[in-house]
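Standup notes
- DV: blocked on the single-chain target, sequence here:
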Amino acid sequence: MTSSPRVVVFLGPTLGLDDARRELDAVYVGPAAQGDVLRVVESAQPAAIAIIDGYFASVPTVWHKEILWALAQGVRVYGASSMGALRAAELEPFGMVGVGRIFERFRSGEYEDDDEVTVVHGPADAGYRPLSDAMVDLRATFEQAVAEQVIDAALGAELIARAKATHYVRRSFAAVLAAAERAAAERAAAGASQPAAAERAAAGASQPAAQLAQLRAWLPAHRVAQKQLDALALLRTLRKLLEADELTPFEPSFRFEHTDAWEQLARRSGHRQTTSSLDPRITGPLLDELRLAARGTYAAAIDGALARALATTEARRDELVVDEVLLGEAANSFFLHRGTLSPEAIAAWMAAEQLDAESLARFLEREARLHWARTQHAAELLVHLPDQLRATGALLPLLRRAREKQRLLAQLGGAQMLTVDEAEGAALLDWFFRQRWGQPPPGNADACAQVLGFESGERLLRALMLERRLADSVAGRG
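- DV (later): unblocked, structure below
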């Protein structure tokens, strides 16, 4: 027996847990529902997933898209017996592997309906005990009875049709046989009531009843549990692969598309939002301090976090590769803003933030995605900027200040009067950053322009000249 937490199996009413563990020592979870494959991949990071059972009607079914996502992550996915056979037949072209007779018949189109494998079952604490019989098991059993000449082909076809016409909730061997016996008795009675056909009725109408009696006696020892057989075949297949060390990472041949529907499912399923991914300092007490900080601090922090989340989502959707160029741009921009460009200053900042080289690299990669998204949506950002300023109460004060500067500029004779030489430029940079940021300028005019979002150093210096003139004018009036 191979012990393997590398394999996770979704199992419910098809096979007992003890029987399953005798074949394969894996991690067994209940029937797969929508979002479960996604959660298992992220929490357990298995080499392979086997889907045997899944929910059909009571809760949303396991989604094709999350199986494709698992394959795209390099996880091998197998299916058999029930929901697994259905999904494997549908997703075989993408790399999901199906095992067993039921899978083969779904793949060939011989089976088409979900109700071929659907059963009613009990809760988890009752071991998902099946409360009805699967259509595939009824088919396989009646076909075997015909093959062994317990019943003839005509009666076999009648029993299969009768089972198919019964809703899966009420479908069972007992119900089908009882209905067939009642029908046989009714046909026999109808034939006996017609004297002209008495001889034919005696010879023909009693035959189904005799066959059904033989079938009842044969069933207990010969009933075919096709779903169980296929489940066992899948577990044995996985055991052999493990023993041969052949569960290597899957290499997808398709591109996974991050559609809006996928992103919604991912969010509902807690995708990439497990507590293990949280900074351990993000706790209730810290959040309370943020909420009680100066007015607007909490809202601004939440808006900033939302922008990062959306940037990450879009980067994944576009399959962004954070290369050295993008990473370098993001790192330079971040440390220029902090004024911590020297190796010693960066090391001190890392120590204060409790970051090592690996965690710093991950942080800067996330910064690079934000930097990329900001560039991608530069024009659109300007469309939404007034609403953001209005929401924070900053729009009207900024508009008033801009109008004051326009009046001052008109008094000075226009923008052509704002000429700045090198010495004046250095003085303006020093004045602004020491007064507003409490630190020396983080570089020359072009570097400072990058930090402040100006398109050039020259444009920044003209803005600073007007800012200084306005400040002096206000001071003079005071």
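- Follow-up: The longest helix spans residues 297-317.
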